[in-house]
User: Fold Dihydrofolate reductase from Flavobacterium zubiriense.
Amino acid sequence: MITMIAAAAENRALGKDNQLVWHLPNDFKRFKNLTTAHHIIMGRKTFESFPKPLPNRTHIIITRQADYQAEGCIIVDSIEKAIEKCPKGEEAFIIGGGEIYQLALPFSDKIELTVVHHSFEADAFFPEIKLDDWELVNSDFQTKDEKHLYDYSFETYIRKQKTPQQ
Assistant:
């Protein structure tokens, strides 16, 4: 199963200058809980935004740079090759950035989305979800507090099965 996991604002903003534009500790905890012990697929810029590789995960980096190296990581040049590197029958996660999410959307079975209830100036955006293709199966609204400056919701979408007439 291929799952896209992201935090995006109401205007689909993901971040600016390769950084998140909000800080939501509970979103980080959820990300860690869901992705630990799994393969995670990301673009080179997303990987380079981390101070070090994320622990207890297999990193697959998509890049056009033929000579790119990152110790302990799998390097590929397409979303298709990244998916091929993931164990069959196990959940793998697409973790960004914006271009990678767009490429991965047709291959994805599930979306774990944290919606930040605010709009931000950004240079990277999450792709638009066509609700004809996706079913919202869970939504958990969280109110802002002393550690979270914005209201947010954890949402889970599952790709709808096509019927023969579609």
Notes: The chain has four helices and ten strands.
